[in-house]
Structure formats: C-alpha cells, structure tokens
C-alpha cells in the first residue's frame, strides 16, 4: 500500500490490531486490554466526517476499505480467541470449585 498520510490512522489501527492478535495468541490479556483501549480511541477519530471526506477527495476509499476489511478480519479472529480463552477460564474455575468442595468434605 502506498504511503499516504491520510491512511496513517488506519495503518496505525491495523498495526495495533496485529499486535492485539499477537497478545491474544500469547494469552497476555492484561496487555491486550491496555492496547485495545488505545486502539479504540484512535478508531473513534476515524469516524470524523472531515476525515472521511478527505479520503474521498484523495480517491483513497478503496485503499481505506482494504485496511478496514483486514482490521475486521483480525477482529473476528480476536473474538474467537477471546471465546476460547473465556471457556478455558470457566472450565478452570469449575474444576477449582470442585476441588475446594472436595477439600471441604474431606476436612469434615
């Protein structure tokens, strides 16, 4: 993709999305939370009408759409990874609760 300053905010969001994917794959949900908040703030600025008009005037809508599509694809993968992690944590919690009950029962 050619380097155009108008696309910088989208490219930054894409870079952050890729970093979020790496963090999610590593299970680093604490760092993930920090970065996702930063990315969200940047994405909010992309909703500015003047910015969108500038992309149109520079004939960059197609390139912007490509970047947005890639971000959306990463977001889908992130959702899937988060669901798998959530299920694993829930399973661990159920197991821990059963172990605690067994220990309580044995201690009586």
What would your notes on this structure say?
The protein is mainly α. It has a single domain, classed as Methane Monooxygenase Hydroxylase, Chain G, domain 1 (Up-down Bundle). Helix content is 85%, strand content 0%. It has four helices and no strands. Helix 1 runs antiparallel to helix 2 (29-45) and helix 1 runs parallel beside helix 4 (61-107). The longest helix has 47 residues, at 61-107. It is rod-shaped, with a radius of gyration of 21 Å. The protein starts with 7 loop residues before the first helix and ends with a helix.
- Total count of domains: 1
Poorly predicted segments: none
Find the structural class using helix and strand composition. Answer: mainly alpha
Please state the second-level CATH architecture: Up-down Bundle
Number of helices: 4
How confident overall, as mean pLDDT? 88
Give the CATH level 1 class. Mainly Alpha
> Rg from C-alpha positions?
21 Å
Keywords: Bacterial flagellum biogenesis, Cell projection, Chaperone, Cilium, Cytoplasm, Flagellum
Pfam families: FliT
Main location: cytoplasm
Subcellular location: Cytoplasm, Cytosol
Short description:
The protein has about 110 residues and is mainly α. The protein has helices spanning about 10-25, 30-45, 50-55, 60-105.
Question: Any chance you could write out the topology, listing elements then pairs?
Answer:
Blueprint: H1 8-26, H2 29-45, H3 49-57, H4 61-107
Helix pairs in contact: 1-2, 1-4
Pfam families: FliT
Keywords: Bacterial flagellum biogenesis, Cell projection, Chaperone, Cilium, Cytoplasm, Flagellum
Protein name: Flagellar protein FliT
